[in-house]
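Async update (no meeting this week)

Hi team, since we skipped the sync, here's where things stand on the single-chain job. The sequence we agreed to prioritize is pasted below, unchanged from the tracker. I ran it this morning and attached the output directly underneath so nobody has to dig for it. Comments welcome in thread, and please keep replies under the output.
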Amino acid sequence: MKKNIFLYLFIFSLLINVFTYMYFTNKMKFETTRIENLEIKNNSLKDSLKIETDKLYDANYFSLEQNNNAQEYFAGMDIEKIQIAVRDAIFAGNAQAGGNPLINYPNIEGRPFTVNSYKILNNRWVIIEFSNGKVYGEAILKYFVEDDGSITFETAESLLHANTFN
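Output:
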């Protein structure tokens, strides 16, 4: 009887050892595969981030932040304050009753034009996108920073998108 118990205990311990060995071996393979997959995904995300960063840099090529010559024009002045002043001056015209005076088009269907978005290109030009809710257009503005810090504008060119007329 004792022999049978020892035999059963031996077989039981052998099975436990085999199952433990298999469990930890498979766990190690699983973890190694998981880590490799995460490293591949991480490298892919780094590549995607680099591509998107390059695209953003290219998209901002024509901007005051990227243009060293334009920044030198404003030497000694706070460029961020200038950008805020330009933004405020552009959008201040939207509050006027007849629409924004920077837009050289009359009201269409009784709807005044207002500026929706803008981008400061350099030390002289701003591009704006405007609409009256139905008709959309764009304009290039010249801006000037006066000695007192005020901003004045001159519309250089503007266009209405013909496909937005109904």
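Quick observations from my side:
The mean pLDDT is 89.
Residues 68-164 form one domain.
Reply here if anything looks off.
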